Amino acid sequence: MYAYEQAALKNGCRHIAGVDEAGRGPLAGPVVASAVIFSKANPPLGSGIKDSKKLTASRRAALSIEICRRAISVGVGVVWPADIDAINIHKASLLAMSRAVVSLDREPDLLLIDGLFPIESKIPQQPIVSGDALSISIAAASIIAKTLRDDVMHAYHRIYPAYNFASNKGYGTKEHIKAIALHGPCPIHRRSFKGVL
């Protein structure tokens, strides 16, 4: 999980940011991204950090706290549903990751990006397919992004309880699809997504 970071350090990089997003697939809510830089002197080896999808919500929450304590910088980027509808989810995901990198309080030497596609940035970057399973920095970013997005959807559940966002997080479950059919879409639904209109 630390091989990409070690290779970059050997090549002279000092600040390596892992970047990932959460929320491409849901019918509602934002897409949220995070960028995480760990200190080369204090990598979180043995801490249980891995792909956020393989962790329970409680474990992600605990690891999010640890990541923020150990990281030398954590950035977050968000793209909201109206903008997702305007530019499409692919571009919105890349934009959220770009915003996460810009929000870091120091500029990285290298970006390790989860997935196939680079983001808009002048910083050198390396896209890594399944990067959240191969890079500890990307895995940490995936945990922060997923935890924050889940928190946002819990907050929206209190505003729009009919859709049960606390449980489905905006994904197209049968219950959620039925709620949309019954009540129509709410302001945080992605109207460009099949199943919403």
What does this structure look like?
The protein has 197 residues and is an alpha/beta fold. The chain has a single domain, classed as Ribonuclease H-like superfamily/Ribonuclease H (Nucleotidyltransferase, domain 5). It is 41% helix and 17% strand. The protein has a five-stranded mixed beta sheet. β1 and β2 form a beta hairpin. α2 (57-70) packs across α5 (136-159) and α3 (81-87) crosses α4 (89-102). The longest helix has 24 residues, at 136-159.
Major sheet strand order: 3-2-1-4-5
Looking at this structure, what is the CATH superfamily? Ribonuclease H-like superfamily/Ribonuclease H
What global shape is seen?
A: elongated
Query: Describe the biggest sheet?
Result: 5 strands, mixed
Secondary structural class: alpha/beta
Note the beta-strand portion: 15-25%
**Helices and strands, in N-to-C order?**
HEEHEHHEEHHH
Rounded to the nearest angstrom, the distance between the terminal CA atoms is: 42 Å
Features:
41% helix; elongated; 197 residues; Nucleotidyltransferase, domain 5; alpha/beta
Q: How do you describe this structure in short?
A:
The protein has 197 residues and is of the alpha/beta class.
